[in-house]
Amino acid sequence: MHFLVLSVNYAYIYTFLTNSTMTDKSIILCRYRPLKQLLTFDVFDDGFNGWMEIMPNFCNGPDFEQSPSILSKDQWMPMMLSTSTYRYPGSHGSMSGQYSLKVSTRPVANRYEMMPAPGSMAHGIKRISFVRPDVHYLQFETWFAYTAEQDKCDNGGELPGLHENSIRAFGFGFDLQHGGNRYHCGTRYLNSVNGKLVKKWQFAYPWAKDDREWAYDTEGDWCRKGVDPYWFGKRFPDGRHQAFLDVPDGHQELCYNETDCKINWQYFRLLLDVKDWKYVEMQCQDRTFDLGGQPIHPSVPYHRIDGLMNPLCWVENDTNRRSFLYLDSVIVSQE
Questions:
Q1: List of residues 6+ apart from 289 with CB closer than 8 A
Q2: Which of 58-72, 183-197, 220-234 comes out lowest in average pLDDT?
Q3: Does the pLDDT at position 8 exceed 50?
Q4: Of these four, 12, 21, 72, 207, which has the most CB atoms within 10 Å of its CB?
Q5: What is the CATH number of the domain that holds 173?
Q6: How confident is the model over 66-98, as pLDDT tens digits?
Q7: H or E stretch including 141?
Q8: Beta partners for residue 270, in sequence order
Q9: Is residue 2 situated within a structural domain?
Q10: Where are the beta strands (DSSP E) in 149-291?
Q11: Exposure letters 280-301 (e unless 16+ CB within 10 A, then b)
């Protein structure tokens, strides 16, 4: 049985749209299935809407140095508004206009079972906060596309100019702190492991035994088990990762298209129970996955971030080639 949310507050949506300066937002909204209250409705043809890259914490002396960690964030690329321009077709544009939010990596990678290379991941985040004490459900929706850089042909293979297996993973979710705990929850599409296409969905859940193992056997790192699962947690050559578990029946063939310079916009939705802290369901394209009430892991809270509600996305390389994740628009809603 899939959980269906049908009680949309259309009066609220009508008021939101008629007060909007974007006359086409009603058309864009028809592509989504929001809950009763819209928190954000970000169309990136309008601008960044508060989305930016994740940066280091510049809190240390003597001159605003980064906090010490095994993780280096200073190689992560900034977000950009992109017309999706490629070698052969020129500008692709977005689904809803000219510009989408582009999340891009640097052309570096380590093997899957190693700690990710600095710059091999990129993250986009929007920083907001909880607004209602009685919220039960929280939902992230987006229309997205992904591709690898069409830089050069590889040596050998049936299609040396097609680089689908250069993209290791991408995902969507939240960084939350509420009720005395911090929660990192989301799902990722594990596309390729050391060049072998896998194409399956996983949900964030830490299964490392302690903080030390979570930080690649590093003693005293700032991170705590369950926090920042995108890059922490040991990985293994068979595709396991101490930060994620497989979605049941989670294999899915997404539409990558026949060449890296053609992108297809695809729908994603993740529904969470933030009252009982459980995964409810996720949808990609025309498939809905029942997440069976899997628990969302509580982590130790951090100082000064009570009420944190940060929607986020990320993409990661599997080879020394840049990977691109595009978001046409994003809706975060609750009820």
A1: 201, 247, 248, 249, 250, 281, 282, 283
A2: 58-72
A3: yes
A4: 207
A5: 2.60.120.260
A6: 777 887 777 888 999 999 999 888 899 999 999
A7: strand 137-148
A8: 140, 282
A9: no
A10: 167-178, 181-193, 196-204, 244-251, 266-273, 278-284, 287-290
A11: bbbbbeeeebbbeebebbebeb
Q: Which domain holds residue 176?
A: 10-334
Mapped onto helix, strand or coil, the DSSP state of residue 299 is strand
Q: Is the dihedral of CA 128, 131, 133, 137 positive or negative?
A: negative
Give me the pLDDT at residue 13, please. Answer: 52
User: E strand or H helix at 16, and its extent?
Assistant: helix 10-18
Q: pLDDT-derived band of residue 9, with 50, 70 and 90 as boundaries?
A: low
The pLDDT, as a whole number, for residue 68 is 78
DSSP 8-state symbol, 235: B
The number of beta carbons lying within 10 Å of the beta carbon of residue 87 is 11
155 or 38: which carries more pLDDT confidence?
38
Counted domains in the chain: 1
Distance CA 308, CA 311 (A): 10
Residue 303 domain-assigned (yes or no): yes
On whether residue 196 sits in a domain, the answer given is yes
Question: Each residue of 273-288: pLDDT tens digit?
Answer: 999 999 999 999 999 9
Structure-token match 């929706």, residue found: 141
To the question of pTM greater than 0.70 for the whole model, the response is yes
User: Do the Cβ atoms of 291 and 279 come closer than 8 Å?
Assistant: yes
How is residue 78 written in tokens?
Answer: 């900034």
Across 146-178, b (16+ Cβ under 10 Å) vs e yields bbbbbeeebeeeeeeebbbbbbbbbbbbbbbbb
Going by the DSSP 8-state scheme, the letter that residue 326 receives in this structure is: E
Determine contact, residues 269/226, Cβ cutoff 8 Å.
no
Cβ-Cβ contacts under 8 Å for 175 (sequence gap 6 or more):
125, 182, 183, 184, 308, 310, 312
Q: What pLDDT shows up at residue 69?
A: 81
Q: Is residue 4 part of a domain?
A: no
